[in-house]
Amino acid sequence: MAFTDASLTALRVFREVAERGSFTAAAAALGYTQSAVSRQIASLERAAGAPLVERRHDGVRLTPAGRLVVRRAAAVVDAVDAAARDLAGLPDGHGTVRLGWFASAGAALVPQALEQLRRTHPAIRVTTHEGSTPALVRSLRAGTVDLALIASAPPFRPPDTETPALHVQTLTERSLAVAVPAAHPLAHGDYVDVAELHGRRWIAGSRNEHLMGVWPGLDERPDIAHTARDWLAKLHLVAAGCGITTVPPSIAPVLPPGVRLLPVRGGPSERRRILLARLPHPPSDAVSRLSDVFREVALRLEIEL
Length: 305
Hints:
Layout: H1 8-20, H2 23-30, H3 34-48, E1 53-56, E2 59-62, H4 64-88, E3 96-101, H5 109-120, E4 125-130, H6 133-142, E5 147-152, E6 167-175, E7 177-181, E8 192-193, E9 201-204, E10 223-227, H7 231-239, E11 245-247, E12 259-265, E13 271-278, H8 285-304
Parallel strand pairs: 3-4, 3-5, 8-12, 9-10
Antiparallel strand pairs: 1-2, 5-13, 6-13, 7-11, 7-12
Helix pairs in contact: 1-2, 1-3, 1-4, 1-6, 2-3, 5-8
C-alpha cells in the first residue's frame, strides 16, 4: 500500500493520538471505540510502511517516522479544513489563532490578553482550550494549536526532547506562594517559614495532578484533605477554612475574599515560569500579534503584583 492511500480519517485519528498521548484518550475525544482508533493507526502504519507509534504502559510515543507523519498529517488536515471554510464562505483561517493554555493562566493572563487583542486587532479570531503542559506540547507537535502558554519548574529544562526544538519565550518568572485562610494563624505574618508548613491540611490537584497544590519537597506524606483541578474551587475551599494550597502569583488578581497569599521562606527557592511556546517555523501575523499582546499583559501584571 502506498502512503498516498492514507485516508483523511486515519490522518485525523493519528493527529488526535499524537496530541492526547494514548489511544484511549483519542477515542474518547473523537467519540470512537478504542479498537476503531487502533484500526485506523494500523492502516496508516501499513500505508507508511513503518511503525508510527511505540506502545508503552503509560500510553504511546511517536517513532521518528511518526513525528514526520504527524507534521504532514497536520498540514493536510488543516488544508482540507481551510478549503471547507472557503467553500462555506467562512472567514479565512489565516486570521485565526488556536491557543492552548494551562489552568492557572486562565485566571488573569489569558482573559486580559484576549480583551486587549479584541480592542487592538478585532479581526483576529482566537479559539482556546485548556490542558496540562505535557498535553499542550503534544498539541503543538500535532499541529492542533498554534501557540501555547505552558508552565515550567526548576531545573527549567526544554518542554520536550523532540526535534526541531520548540520556540520558547519566558513571559514571567516568580516564586510559588501559599494561599491560606485570612483567619488562619499563618496569615498573621507577612510570610510563612517552610517549617510552618509541616502537618498542614492541603488542597491539591486531582488525578495525575494529585500533588499540585502541596508545597514541593516536604519531607513528610502530605495530609490532602480535598482535591480539585479548578484553581478557583481550590481558593474558595481555602476561604472556607478547608485547608491551604500552593498557587502561582499570577492567581493574585482573582483571590476571593478571606484568602491571603504569602511568600514562603526557607528551603530551596520554588520558582515558576510562564512560557509562550510554538513550533519554530515563522509564525503567522495573527500569532505574532497575539504573542506581542501576551508579553505586554504579562509585563503589566508583573508590575501590578
